[in-house]
Amino acid sequence: MEKRYDIVLFGLGRYGSAITERLLQQDCSVLGVDFNPAVVREWQQAGLDIAYGDATDPELVASLPLAGVKWVVSGIPEHQTGVTHEDARLALVDALRSAGFTGRVAIAAHRGSDADRFAAGGADLILQPFRDAADQAAQLLLSDEAKGLSSREGDRAEAG
Questions:
Q1: What are the pLDDT digits (tens) for 96-145?
Q2: Residue 33 has what DSSP assignment?
Q3: Which of 78, 56, 63 minimizes the C-alpha distance to 130?
Q4: How far apart, in whole angstroms, are the C-alpha atoms of residue 38 and residue 67?
Q5: How far apart are CA 83 and CA 68, in angstroms?
Q6: Sheet with 30-34: strands ordered across
Q7: CA pair distance 71, 101, nearest whole angstrom
Q8: Do residues 93 and 106 touch, judged by C-beta distance below 8 A?
């Protein structure tokens, strides 16, 4: 019986790696997929289950253990091209659906203008790394915890 995964994550660059690390910290079972042999070796040495391959290759996508996978996440950068010259992120969605994947698909979009195109292409969730990080930063800055830090720093300034 092949291993089951909660999440399959394509593209283990800076963003995809950061997502993967956080998912692993939450005890998620993750299969990484990357087109860079050096990245594949690095993650293998770190103990991550990883496959080498091109997200635009429908045969690769069809060969992955997708049964029971809740999310497929594309952290693939915009400029990366593969077997086809179409957008690799949309080609991945097509390949997943052709392979019978019924789970959810998240795509990282570095430009807001791509969000509608990815949604129309079948993505369930559009991750916008810079906007999402800014949203989280604003929430942290406005949180009760941050307010407590501000008042403590004021106390230190008065004491100094």
A1: 999 999 999 999 998 878 888 999 999 999 999 888 989 999 999 888 76
A2: E
A3: 78
A4: 28
A5: 27
A6: 49-52, 30-34, 7-10, 71-74, 104-108, 125-127
A7: 10
A8: no
**Confidence at residue 156, expressed as pLDDT on a 0 to 100 scale:** 55
C-alpha closest to that of 104 among 81, 123, 79: 123
Pairing of strands 49-52, 125-127: unpaired
Q: Which two tokens stand for residue 8?
A: 């399959």
Query: Do the Cβ atoms of 61 and 84 come closer than 8 Å?
Result: no
With a CB cutoff of 8 Å and minimum separation 6, the contacts of 108 are 11, 15, 16, 73, 74, 75, 76, 89, 127, 128, 129
d(CA 70, CA 156): 48
Q: Please state, in angstroms and rounded to a whole number, the distance separating the CA atoms of residues 27 and 111.
A: 30
